[in-house]
Amino acid sequence: AEQRRIVANDRLETTLETATRFVNQTVKMSDRFGVPSAFVVELLKEPEQVFLALMEEDTGRLEVRRKYAQTLLDFSDNYEVLGDSALRLQRLGEAERILADLVQKDATQPEWQFVLATARSKIGTTHLFRGDKAAAEAKYQQSLDIRRRLAEARPDDRNYQRYYSVALNRMGEVSISLGRYAQARDFIGRARDIRSRLLTGSP
Fold first, then answer.
1. Under DSSP, is residue 203 helix (H, G, I), strand (E, B) or coil?
2. pTM: predicted TM-score of the whole model, two decimal places
3. Hey, how many other C-beta atoms are within 10 angstroms of the C-beta on 143?
4. 80-123, pLDDT tens digit by residue?
5. Which string of DSSP letters, residue by residue, matches 66-134?
6. Which positions ≥6 away from 175 have C-beta within 8 Å?
């Protein structure tokens, strides 16, 4: 039984990789040859639905669930290229729910927290694009909270520090759009301080 489960998991992972590769290549070809985005969205629906059906099959392996979430993030990026913010937001929300569940089940995996922060930041950006500044601020704040915890836990990790500065900048940008200029200066100033430390190598 265990061997069968391992084989099934391997097949699922291969399917994930194949589905992601197909979707990404289709979007790239449409952009290159000027195929109408509405046609490409319709073309992608069938393989995407197959993927979503597979996703409902809980394999019991948390890492496979993490790969599901990453595939959904990849799909969402393609919908950004195609200009469909509603589908982008839907796929991002699905990825966020999987990642939040993973982090709740095992909070010792910083990489899962990192990707969750990325998903929430992308949701914030999509909300901002759609004109919902309050929703954008809420998601940016959630992303910032994770980025800050990771940066504080690993002060010598330049990647975590850099993404923490990016999250602060995001909050600064949305604060400007909401007319909170003093708050924006604080966020942007803190981001600048982190970047300066990274450039000089100061702790």
1. coil
2. 0.79
3. 25
4. 877 889 989 999 999 999 999 999 999 899 999 999 999 999 99
5. HHHHHHHHHHHHHHHHHT-HHHHHHHHHHHHHHHHHHHHH-TT-HHHHHHHHHHHHHHHHHHHHTT-HH
6. 137, 181, 183, 184, 187
Q: How many residues does the chain have?
A: 203
Burial environment of residue 113 by CB neighbours within 10 A (0 to 12, 13 to 18, 19 or more): buried
CB atoms within 10 A of CB 166: 16
- Structure tokens, 176: 């400007």
Helices 85-105, 62-82: axis angle to 10 degrees equals: 160
**CB-based contact 92:72 (threshold 8 Å):** yes
Give the C-alpha separation, 140 to 138, whole Å: 6
Burial of 152 (0-12, 13-18, 19+ CB in 10 A): exposed
Rg of the chain's alpha carbons, rounded to an integer? Answer: 19
